[in-house]
Every structure is written in structure tokens, then in C-alpha cells.
């Protein structure tokens, strides 16, 4: 090992140490706990025993947990699908040259500067049933006759509900700048000569988007989708702050369920098992991404 390699390892060592202490160790400790009986109300560490997959069998037999898994998948698919679709459109808007582009970029990227906790508090006020300015506007336009209960309506249409769609909308609003920046970097790396050649062939806007933009953005989209899906399966802040999983468990997701099980009912073993389910789901996404990346490398 030469001096250059030693210097490189020394430079990344602090970051690796922090990652190991704050990321890898807690994850491994949680996985170990998921195979133990760890009921804090039943006693202290002398009552902990190895139970194998019993915690997983317990939570998978819980209808509320199964509902939470399905809702986590639905939340993630909806949020990722909407935010990527909007991001593809808006990234091309901010990439174009027009008067007032700086103002438009500032407005589009403004949610980036709002932390999720603050964003959740702001939107909780905006979506309040009695004092919501959104309800006031809808009533003035004559689109509704009463107040919409954005975060408390228990009515459902299959797996969907107004509270679910409200939280999805807030998650999309908060995550849109990240997606746009990601896609904007990809758009700016596409050679302009490809679009000029498409113009010479008489291609329209949709044809250029389909045959030039999307194929050239494929590597960026693969990374972006993998990150969004993995983050979506473990998302916590907005669902917990805005609804705490309610009403009637309609907006609960796995991370919130795990938190409630651990810190409301003190069943850290079940909470750790739920975290293990999240890890398994994100691992599947990671495996799919690596598989697709491997196929691309073979081409």
C-alpha cells in the first residue's frame, strides 16, 4: 500500500467511523433485537431471551400491521410516481431559457429550504378542517359546500382516502426540488447535438422526449428511483407529525408503526422486527437496481 492510498484512507476514516457508529451499529443491534423477547414493561435485561422468528410471526399475524405494509407500498408508489412525473416536466421548464427563469427556479426550489418537520407543521395548519384557507378558497369557488376534512376524514375508496392523498401531496411538495435538481443535472449532460439531429429528422416535442430525453436520462432515473423508493419505505416525519397514522390507521406506514410499537407500547422486539421488514423491502429495491445496473454494464 503506497502513501497515496494511506492518505485517502485517512481522509475517509472519520466519515466511515461516524457511519459505523450512527448507522451500521444501530442497524445491527436492531436486527439482533428483532430475534429477542424485549418487552420493556415486563422487566429489564434479565428477562431478554432469544425467540428466533417469533416476533416476525407475531407482527405478520396482526391485521393492522398487514394494512400498514400495504399502505407503505401505496404511499411510496403514489409519491414516487407523482414526484418523478412532475419532476420530469418541471426540470425541462427550468432548463429552458426564458425571461423570469430565475424567479421560477426560486419558487420551484423553495420547498428545498423547508425542513420536513416545519413543512408538516405548516401544512397541518393549511389543512385544518375549520380554519383551512384551502377550504375557504374551494367554498368561494363553489366547488364544495362544506369543509373537507383533509386529515381526519375516515371515509375510504378501496385503499385510498382523503388523509392519505393529503399526506402524499405534502410529501411530493417537499421532495420535488430534490428530484428536479437530480433530473436537471441529467438534462444538462445530454448533448445538444442529439436534439439538433432530432429537429432535422422532423421530430416533435413528444418524440424528442421519448426517443432522446428518456433514454439519455435512464441512468439518472435508475439511481433516483432507487433512492426515492428506499427512502419512501422508511419515511417517518410527515406521516407521524401530520396524522400519527390516523384516522383509523389510514395513513400509517411502517416507520410510524415501528415507532409507536416501541415508544408507545414499549415492545421494542416487535418494533425491531418491523424495522427488519423495512430493511428487507429496501434491500429488494437495492438488489433490483444492482441487477439492472449489471445488465447495463454488460451491454
What does this structure look like?
Belongs to the binding-protein-dependent transport system permease family. It is found in: Cell membrane. The protein is mainly α and 299 residues long. It has a domain at 75-217 and 228-251: MetI-like (MetI-like fold, Orthogonal Bundle), CATH 1.10.3720. 71% of the residues lie in helices and 3% in strands. The chain has helices at 3-33, 54-60, 63-95, 101-109, 116-126, 133-140, 162-188, 192-200, 205-233, 237-242, 254-263, 268-298; strands at 36-37, 49-50, 156-157, 160-161. The strands form 2 sheets. It has a two-stranded antiparallel sheet. The chain has a two-stranded antiparallel ribbon with strand order 3-4. β3 (156-157) and β4 form a beta hairpin. The longest helix has 33 residues, at 63-95. The mean pLDDT is 89.
In short:
With 299 residues, the chain is mainly α. It has 12 helices and 4 strands.
User: Total number of helical segments?
Assistant: 12
CATH class of the domain at 75-217 and 228-251: Mainly Alpha
- Structure class: mainly alpha
- Hey, roughly how much beta strand do the residues contain? under 5%
- Unreliable segments (pLDDT under 50, ≥5 consecutive)? none
CATH topology descriptor of the domain at 75-217 and 228-251: MetI-like fold
The average pLDDT is 89
Using only C-alpha atoms, the radius of gyration works out to 23 Å
CATH superfamily membership of the domain at 75-217 and 228-251, which one? MetI-like
Write down the oligomeric state.
single chain
Name the helicity range: over 70%
Distance, first to last CA:
34 Å
Helix and strand succession?
A: HEEHHHHHEEHHHHHH
Amino acid at each position: 500500500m503506497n502513501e497515496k492510498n494511506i492518505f485517502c484512507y485517512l481522509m475517509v476514516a472519520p466519515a466511515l467511523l461516524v457511519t459505523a457508529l450512527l448507522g451500521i451499529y444501530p442497524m445491527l443491534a436492531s436486527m439482533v433485537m428483532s430475534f429477542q423477547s424485549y418487552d420493556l414493561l415486563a422487566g429489564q435485561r434479565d428477562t431478554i431471551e432469544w425467540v428466533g422468528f417469533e416476533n416476525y410471526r407475531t407482527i405478520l399475524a396482526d391485521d393492522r400491521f398487514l394494512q400498514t405494509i400495504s399502505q407503505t407500498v401505496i404511499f411510496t408508489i403514489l409519491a414516487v410516481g407523482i414526484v418523478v412525473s412532475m419532476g420530469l416536466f418541471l426540470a425541462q421548464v427550468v432548463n429552458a431559457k426564458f425571461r423570469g427563469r430565475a424567479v421560477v427556479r426560486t419558487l420551484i426550489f423553495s420547498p428545498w429550504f423547508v425542513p420536513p418537520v416545519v413543512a408538516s407543521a405548516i401544512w397541518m395548519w393549511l389543512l385544518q378542517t375549520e380554519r383551512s384557507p384551502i377550504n375557504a378558497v374551494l367554498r368561494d369557488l363553489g366547488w364544495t359546500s362544506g369543509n373537507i376534512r383533509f386529515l381526519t376524514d375516515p371515509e375510504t375508496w378501496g385503499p385510498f382516502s382523503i388523509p392519505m392523498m393529503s399526506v402524499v401531496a405534502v410529501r411530493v411538495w417537499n421532495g420535488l426540488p430534490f428530484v428536479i435538481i437530480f433530473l436537471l443535472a441529467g438534462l444538462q449532460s445530454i448533448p445538444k447535438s442529439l436534439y439538433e439531429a432530432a429537429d432535422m429528422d422532423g421530430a416533435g416535442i413528444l418524440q424528442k422526449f421519448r426517443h432522446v430525453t428518456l433514454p439519455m436520462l435512464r441512468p439518472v432515473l435508475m439511481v433516483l428511483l432507487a433512492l426515492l423508493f428506499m427512502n419512501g419505505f422508511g419515511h417517518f416525519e410527515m406521516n407521524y407529525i401530520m396524522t400519527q397514522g390516523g384516522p383509523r390507521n389510514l395513513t400509517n406506514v411502517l416507520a410510524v408503526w415501528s415507532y409507536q410499537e416501541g415508544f408507545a407500547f414499549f415492545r421494542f422486539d416487535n418494533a425491531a422486527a418491523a424495522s427488519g421488514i423495512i430493511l428487507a423491502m429496501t434491500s429488494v429495491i437495492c438488489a433490483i437496481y444492482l441487477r439492472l445496473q449489471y445488465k447495463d454494464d454488460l451491454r
